[in-house]
Specification:
The chain is α+β, with helices and mostly antiparallel strands. 41% of the residues lie in helices and 21% in strands. InterPro entries: aa-tRNA-synth_II/BPL/LPL, Ala-tRNA-lgiase_IIc, Ala-tRNA-ligase_IIc_anticod-bd, Ala-tRNA-synth_IIc_core, Ala-tRNA-synth_IIc_N, Ala-tRNA_ligase, Thr/Ala-tRNA-synth_IIc_edit, tRNA_SAD.
Length: 584
């Protein structure tokens, strides 16, 4: 079966069951700042699961453009992608029972009229309970036991079989998953709950919601007998062929590099068509990372000359299904080329520096020097290792990892919430100068937090924090908008503490002792038994201005922050306010 047919069959199947097809939404989520990119088909339907009337009717399906940065390190194997298309069928308020949803999924996969996947290749799992005290899904278990021909069913914990929410709040619930040849293809989610920003679960307002997600490329692989990986299916065939056409030689590692190029450039094309531009922040940073990694692999393959033609092949492959690729073809190619040229200039410098490091090193390159090449020039560790190996040098990966860890903590607080904890783990390219800005913003955020409590009272609790080189964003519980006077008071007070040039002290303490002393903590975070406490105090009066549990790093004196300015105060979700602030 081919790409087009699999798509058509999915739509025909669910139309016959009364569903209406809804076009894919953008990769940039609308009206949901809690996620960076659309990670699931349900994203655009989130409000419908939370009680808002659906403009699409009660039963909907979509083939959604999705992006999961969390899988980037697995790209190159047979089944993982960053960008992918997701089939989904949705029912918003109890119209479809669990049993019905399970039977539909089984019929679509196993029936000779639809996907005709051999029954012996299909297995399934259901939820065996324990997230926030929720019970095992007995109803799903019973429904699965009635499925004629399904031979193997397992019970799994919440790490496997509980889905959502996307971002910090939203619909979520237990799942039934279907696997073909052991690979997960379809996630049938029963949205029984709504997860609040503090992690508590309340019953879904409209009753049981059905939200399913099935990776198109994985499904296509299961119905393409001659394919061993998703890259062998006709979704990728012309793209892989074009990369190969530009790749001389068959050295080791070629297959993996070709796959990485195919995945990353495909993702880049779709991000560009949704108006993302390469930059150092948020979606732009994801795009930059993909493009740069693809370029390094193309370079390794000696296939850089094919860059533009490969992008053309991607647009050609998907243009019939996503007309926005065709209508924006020139823009996509132009922006990709610009980023390529910019990056090639940087890596030329980075390579020169690497050559110097290599000539100065005996036996091994220190982790600090490797990290410096990585942080300043964007040279990935793999690349440095390969170059070093050609000169019989090793790279001290342990000390690289240490340098990386301490650097990573700077941006972790902010980036984690959006990158799902994976964003920085394998390739942040934050320069020294950027680190300093983020560190200053970080200390400013502690002062802001203290000021909010001082002027608004104990109702204020941190609900989230996000830092990048442009701004700090701080979410906190509070029931109403701040008045202009309150905003001014908070801002003035923070600036006063900055002007006083107060010292910032770091101490390691047992967690209970720190909490006992009234250090502020973030309730969503799990802390170790011994924690770092950062205190800003006034040596003239011994007054404690701010005290927080925190991984740091921070400036050593508040005057380093310079001028602090609140740019925006708005609602973030029910009972939660959001402040954006910048520094000079
Ligand atoms: N919303 C279901 C999934 O993404 O797997």
């Amino acid at each position: 079966m081919d790409y087009q047919k699999v798509r058509d069959r999915f739509v025909q199947f669910f139309e016959a069951k009364g569903h209406r097809i809804v076009p894919s939404s953008s990769l940039i989520p609308q009206d949901d700042a809690s996620v960076l990119l659309t990670t699931a088909g349900m994203q655009q339907f989130k409000p419908c699961f939370a009680g808002v009337d659906s403009p699409y009717g009660d039963l909907a399906i979509s083939i959604q453009k999705c992006f999961r940065l969390s899988d980037i390190d697995s790209v190159g194997d047979d089944t993982h992608l960053t960008f992918f298309e997701m089939f989904g069928n949705f029912a918003f308020r109890g119209e479809v029972s669990k049993e019905q949803a399970i039977l539909w999924a089984w019929e679509f996969l196993a029936s000779p009229n639809w996907m005709a996947i051999g029954r012996d290749r299909i297995t399934a799992s259901y939820y065996n309970g324990n997230r926030a005290g929720t019970k095992a899904d007995g109803e799903a278990k019973t429904a699965l036991s009635k499925v004629d021909g399904l031979s193997r069913v397992t019970a799994q914990p919440d790490t496997e079989n509980f889905w959502g929410p996307t971002g910090s709040e939203g619909p979520c619930g237990p799942t039934v998953e279907f696997y073909v040849d052991g690979v997960e293809v379809w996630n049938v989610v029963f949205n029984e709950f709504y997860c609040q920003p503090d992690g508590t679960l309340s019953p879904a307002v409209g009753g049981l919601g059905i939200d399913t997600g099935m990776g198109l490329e994985r499904l296509l692989l299961t119905v393409t007998p001659e394919a061993e990986s998703i890259y062998d299916t006709d979704a990728f065939a012309p793209i892989i062929a074009m990369i190969k056409a530009h790749t001389p030689g068959e050295e080791a590692g070629v297959t993996k590099s070709i796959r990485i190029v195919a995945d990353h450039l495909r993702g880049s094309v779709f991000l560009l068509s949704d108006h993302v531009q390469p930059s150092n922040k948020e979606q732009g940073y994801v795009l930059r990372r993909l493009l740069r990694r693809a370029i390094l692999h193309l370079d390794k393959l000696n296939a850089l000359a094919g860059f533009e033609e490969i992008i053309g092949a991607i647009i050609g492959r998907y243009g019939d299904f996503y007309p926005e690729l065709l209508s924006q073809k020139d823009m996509i190619i132009q922006l990709a080329n610009l980023e390529r040229d910019k990056f090639l200039k940087t890596i030329t410098q980075g390579r020169k520096e690497l050559d110097k490091v290599i000539s100065e090193s005996e036996n091994s390159i220190t982790g600090e020097r490797a990290f410096d090449l990585f942080a300043t020039y964007g040279l990935p560790l793999d690349f440095i290792k390969e170059e070093a190996a050609q000169h019989h040098l090793k790279v001290d990966e342990n000390s690289f990892e240490r340098a990386f860890q301490s650097h990573q903590e700077i941006s972790r607080a902010g980036v984690e919430s959006k990158f799902g904890g994976h964003g920085l783990s394998s390739g942040a390219q934050v320069s020294e100068a950027d680190q300093q800005v983020i560190t200053r913003l970080h200390t400013a955020t502690h002062l802001l937090h203290a000021a909010l409590i001082k002027f608004l009272g104990n109702e204020v609790k941190q609900a989230g924090s996000d830092l990048n080189t442009e701004r700090a964003r701080f979410d906190f519980t509070f029931s109403r908008a701040l008045t202009d006077d309150e905003k001014r008071q908070v801002e003035d007070w923070v600036n006063e503490q900055i002007q006083k040039d107060l010292p910032v002290k770091k101490e390691a303490k047992p967690l209970q002792e720190a909490l006992g002393e009234g250090a502020l903590a973030f309730f969503k975070q799990k802390y170790p038994n011994v924690v770092d406490v950062y205190t800003i105090y006034d040596p003239a009066t011994d007054e404690v201005i701010s005290k927080e549990l925190c991984g740091g790093p921070h400036v050593s004196r508040t005057s380093e922050i310079d001028k602090f300015h609140i740019t925006k105060e708005q609602s973030s979700s029910a009972g939660v306010r959001r402040i954006r602030a910048v520094i000079n």
